[in-house]
Amino acid sequence: MRVVIVGGGPGGYEAALVAADLGAEVTVVNDEGLGGACVLWDCVPSKTLLTSAQAFNTLETAPSLGVHFEGMPGQEVPRYEVDLPTIMRRVRDLALAQSEDISKRVLAAGVRVVLGRGRVVGPRTVEVQPTGDGAGRSGGPERLEGDAILLATGSDPRRMDTAPTDGEIILSSQDVYKLRQVPEHLVVVGAGATGAEYATAFLRFGAQVTFVVSRDRILPTHDEDAAMVIEDVFERRGLRTVKNARAAKVERVGDRGIVHLEDGRTIEGSHVLLTIGQVPQTSGLGLQEMGVQTNERGAVVVDGVSRTSVPSIYAAGDVTAKLMLASVAAGQGRTAMWHLLGQAVTPLRWDAVAATIFTDPQIATVGLSEQRAAETGIEVEVDTLPLAGNSRAKMSNRPDGFVKLLARPGSGTIAGGAVVASYASDLIAPISAACFNRLTASQLSQAFQIYPSFAGSIQECARRLAVRVQGSYRY
Ligand SMILES: Cc1cc2nc3c(=O)[nH]c(=O)nc-3n(C[C@H](O)[C@H](O)[C@H](O)COP(=O)(O)OP(=O)(O)OC[C@H]3O[C@@H](n4cnc5c(N)ncnc54)[C@H](O)[C@@H]3O)c2cc1C
Q1: Does the chain have fewer CB atoms within 10 Å around its N or its C terminus?
Q2: Centroid of chain to Cα 464
Q3: Would you say 472 and 441 are in contact if contact means Cβ atoms under 8 Å apart?
């Protein structure tokens, strides 16, 4: 089997590794370094940036833990300097190093990597237009023939015609890394995960931050209780939220950015950051000519095993706009290759996907949410345990957050959960394993956890839920 993969992000490179492992001859066509936007522009850079912002947690809590910094008596947060050029260099170096590591793994697996832009010109043919030339290639387009094609071209930041980004004052999420000074006043337009993460970082770096949100709360599609914790923390740190505010236009006037709202109000800042979503990247791919079906969002339509409407063409990741997460892209890519190469395969478990918003504290969720259960009429029992009572949270002076678990009545099977805590992205792991493997609240509560630890709250919450739903946590 020969497989041609267009796009080298997690959807593409994870598929390449699986296909190569199963003996296929694999070529990956990518127009930038391997790892894709995920590694070079989105997940890795944003989380590296946020790691620098996390240094402030230590600074903020140290005096209350009895550790004072010389020369700064009585100051709650010691004086500091944010060296943005160093932070941004670190972000870039880490992203490039990660991309390099992925390239080594993929090349060692025997995969051929072609630098260029791919276009589907036949049900089994991709034409590559070389871009730049990091790989020493020159000359005209190359035709790649395969038995199957996988489209994994990802997504691009959504743009508004009335809000053209200039990379200096009006920024997209990818322009953030060009900043060399902390903005004096950053206006973030868009209330989703990306906006909340950048607001978290720049608030910590000392910028005045205004969050412009079109609904009555931030993170409108996420767990409401979790969003309330973040709103509260934002408010305490001085962030201003302008709610029920839909941006109609953003313009640059001199060295300032001005957001014009639909209701006539204006908000001015030194910089405006647009985080209004992502659109599937399908332009110039030749999908229409090939008869590959797309939906009203412009996303490639796929079935449970990532097949498109053309039998020899599969698609994975953001281009399918199912759930725009690196882990989902990777899962879809692997599933596609297992299916293509004749392995036993089950459709992706959409009911057990885990995700994190890397605010501070972080919000991690898995499976069914309380809101979704209410909307769809799925019966669940819910238990929420605030972290304020957790001994580890008290020691660390990090009391913001909670653990929430959802279980099906009768069986007590864990259907979902949410954790709001400093390292919620790691703490969600046992709940994710329970949800994926359909463990009961009682089973989750019996697994050993460390004392004292934040994870102890997961165990206690599971115990309380088991007593309510299953009558006891002993079985
Ligand atoms: C700011 C931000 C932060 C995020 N943080 C997280 C996070 O922490 N965790 C998480 O799980 N998800 C996160 N995401 C989402 C995550 O980045 C995506 O879900 C993930 O990158 C999707 O992977 P992919 O393989 O579909 O595409 P991508 O990673 O976008 O890779 C696709 C690649 O294909 C290339 N390409 C496109 N068209 C062509 C073509 N015609 N020919 C050749 N190459 C082409 C693109 O240039 C790109 O390199 C974040 C998103 C954003 C915007």
Answers
A1: C
A2: 31
A3: no
59 and 191 Cβ atoms separated by less than 8 Å: no
Instruction: For residue 173, give the ligand 1 atom closest to its CA.
Output: 1
Of 4, 14, 38, which is best to mutate to test ligand 1, by the most ligand atoms within 8 angstroms of its C-beta?
Answer: 38
Question: For residue 233, how many C-alpha atoms fall within 13 Å in the half-sphere facing its CB?
Answer: 26
Helices (H), 6-42: 10-21, 36-40
Residue 76 pLDDT level (bands cut at 50, 70, 90): low
Quick one: tokens of 191? 């209330």
Distance CA 91, CA 358 (A): 16
Is the CA virtual torsion 132, 137, 140, 143 positive or negative? negative
pLDDT digits 0-9 by tens, 242-252: 999 999 999 99
Q: Does an H or E element contain 455, and which?
A: helix 455-470
DSSP string, 71-133: T-TT-SS------HHHHHHHHHHHHHHHHHHHHHHHHHTT-EEEEEEEEEEETTEEEEEE-S-
SS3 label, residue 353: coil
For strands 266-269 and 256-261, give the pairing: antiparallel
User: Cβ(442) to ligand 1 under 6 A?
Assistant: no
